[in-house]
Write a structure and sequence with these properties.
This protein is an all-alpha fold. It has one domain. It is 64% helix and 0% strand. The protein contains 2 helices and no strands. α1 packs antiparallel against α2. Keywords: Membrane, Transmembrane, Transmembrane helix.
C-alpha cells in the first residue's frame, strides 16, 4: 500500500536544488571553480521544468480519473432497482 502519491515535480525541483548545492560544495572544497551566478539559471530551469512536469502529471491524473468515472456510469442508475419510489 502506498503511503503517498508520487509527485514528479517535487523530485525535479529537489534534484535542481541538490545539483546547485553540489556545484557550490565542489567550489568550496576547491575541486573546481563555480561562477557566483550559477544558481540562477540552474534553479530557474529546474523550477520551470518541475512546473511543466507537475502540470502534465496533473492533467494525466484528471484524464485518468475522468475515464474511470465515465466507465463506471455505464450501468443502470440505482433508482431503477424498484426499492425507491420516485414521485
Amino acid at each position: 500500500m502506498l503511503r503517498h502519491e508520487f509527485r514528479p515535480g517535487r523530485l525535479i525541483a529537489g534534484a535542481a536544488a541538490l545539483g546547485t548545492a553540489a556545484a557550490y560544495l565542489g567550489d568550496a572544497t576547491g575541486a573546481w571553480q563555480t561562477p557566483w551566478f550559477t544558481a540562477v539559471p540552474v534553479m530557474s530551469g529546474g523550477l520551470f521544468l518541475a512546473a511543466v512536469v507537475t502540470f502534465v502529471h496533473y492533467r494525466l491524473r484528471r484524464r485518468r480519473s475522468a475515464m474511470a468515472a465515465s466507465s463506471e456510469n455505464t450501468e443502470a442508475p440505482a433508482s431503477t432497482s424498484g426499492s425507491q419510489a420516485i414521485m
